[in-house]
Structures are given as structure tokens and as C-alpha cells.
Amino acid sequence: MAVQVFAGVCALLALAGAAYYALCIWAALRFLSQRRATGAFAPPVSIMKSLKGVDPHMRAAFRSHCVLDYPEYEVLFGVSDLSDPAVALVHEVQAEFPQAKLRIVHCPQVLGTNGKVSNLAQMLPHAAYEHVLINDSDILVEPDSLRRVMGCFVDANVLVVTTLYRAVAGSSFWSRLEALGISTDFMGGVLVAGELEGGIKFALGATMATTKSVLAGIGGLESLVDVLADDYELGARAAAARYRVDLADVVVETALPDYSWRDFWQHQLRWARNIKDRRTSQYVGLIVTFGLVWGILSALLAPRAWWAWGALVATALLRFAAAVATGDRVLRDPQIMHDLWLIPLRDFVALLVWIASFFDNTIVWRGERFRLRDGKLTPLK
Known about the structure:
By secondary structure, the protein is of the alpha/beta class. The chain is built from 14 helices and 10 strands. The strands form 2 sheets. The chain has a 7-stranded mixed beta sheet with strand order 3-2-1-4-6-5-7, sandwiched between helices. Strands 8-9-10 form a 3-stranded antiparallel beta sheet, with helices on one face.
């Protein structure tokens, strides 16, 4: 009887998951239907990148920022150590594109535990223009992406713009599994959040475009130097200050390292515990997003029950349809159709990460352990 009851609970969770997957499909179709033409608004922009070490595909990412179809912009590269290998790469790109406005900014101070934001805070005074765009060092963009992002500012109510992204996996299996999760789960959740919350209330590190005035209005970048998810927090603080955050009709690309199992687990757990810390109630509600797992468990526990198999079939169809809608149609991820068969495994691993995230609030970041509370990091010795 206990097994039957648990199978029933799993079936109900699977059906709740099916409803969530249907919502993902609807949100993806809404995003596709709202594609806007490139706006005529194109103010000068300072693009800021914080560097530390050399990431996969970094050279290609730098080069993509040198051929943007945009009238006036500069790219600033912030480094805490001028002997960092990324500096040599910047010099190589400068030599290849002498017409591009590329500058290296030395950021010698350690303002907090988040080295990226520490650099950005020291770079901002060197930015020549009022409009700034912050993105990660490995972000690869299309030539028209900056024009489309800045075009969102034609609406005077829009003061922060962010974008979706897809991930290029490294050669390891675990890197491939994370890329699959980003395209078929995480980005779908972003789209659903935008629909349910009446717009995006956060930003993604792949692109954060705003102005110096807005940054000053939310306390400046210095207020984020001890925050783990600086991208989320920047957007959340802007939304709380009643600045509108918009999701541009742009998809950029990031590259993932060749994760080992341990690296993959630590990264997933850091990601999960950050979401739990910042959005606790919504994070608990993520239990329904593992609908395919619950459907499989229900069918295994009650193999002769028609309702268990019915829940599994309905959930599986919608889960794969949502993966295609988000990963293939919206993100145009070329690897999705090849990796669909890995979705059940990916979802089982994601459920394990979700469960494990409730047992502690410590994370590992760049080889160091921290305690995470209220979005801020405290080093652990």
C-alpha cells in the first residue's frame, strides 16, 4: 500500500511537471512571436569584460566583439594582474584588429570576494560612455547583437537589458550534460519566469546592458563585490528600484570547460544553492520541474497501473517537446537534437542536485570554499 501511495504521489508530481513543460512551450512560442525589428536607437557603448585566465574559445569571443555592426563602441578588459595570460591574448586581438577600440584596464585592488565585480567596479570610471554592457569573457556574439540589445532602450522605461544564451560543451561527458541542462531546462525557466512575473526581474551574466546612472541608483558595482550571483542581483535590484528589465531578441553563446564529475557536481551545486538562497519559495517549487523523473518512478513503482503509464507518456511527450521548443527553436542550439536521449539522465542528476542543495549552504568556487547567505560570500578556512 505504501508503494502504491508513493507511486500515486509521483504520478501527480509528473502531471504537475507536464503542466510546467506546457508552460515552457507556451513561453518559448511567446518569445518567438514577439521578435522585434532592430531599433534605430544606437548610443555609444562601453563593453566591459573582467578577465582571469584563458577560457575555452576566448579568442573567438574577443574577435566577435571586434566586428560588431555598430556605429560607436569600445571594449574594456579588466585584469587584476598584468601578467595574466589573458592580457597576451588581448594584445594579439588588438594587433589583428587595429581599428577596434580595445583597452586593458589594470584593477589592482581586491574590493571583495567576487573578483569579477571587483574588477568591474574599478573599470567603470574608465568607461568613456554612459551606456555600458557587461558580459563574460567567453561570450561570443553575432555582428548585429549589440544593435539589437541597445535597440531595446528606445523604450524610455527600459533601463536594463539582458539576453538568453546557449552553451558549447567541452569534450567531457559532464560538460555535455550541463550544456544540455542550460538549453532544455534553465533557459526555459527564464522564459517562464518572465511570463509569470510580468517581465524579467533579474539579469543574466551573458549580457547586462544598462547605464552608469542606473548602476549608481542601485548602489554601484561596489555594493556587489561580495555577492556570488552579481548578474542576478544587478537585475533584481534594478527591478526593485522600478527600473524595467527587458529580454532582448538575442541569443549569445558561452563555452563550458571540460568538467570532471567533481567539477560538474560542484558547479551545479553552487548554482542550485545560489537560486535557493535568493528565491527560496520558487526554488522549492522546482520540484515539479522534474516531472519526467517522477513519471518514470511512478511507472516503475506501479508497473500495472494505467494511470502511472499515462502520466509518464504525457509527461515525456511534453518534456521533449519543451526541450525542442526552447533549445532548438529559441536558442538554435545545434547539439540539442543529438542529445535529446540524455534528458532522462540529466533530469535524474538535476533532482539529486536539488535534494543535496538543502543540506548545506557552502559552495566551492575557483577552488575555494565559501558560506553563502543572503547572496553574499564568506570565505571558509
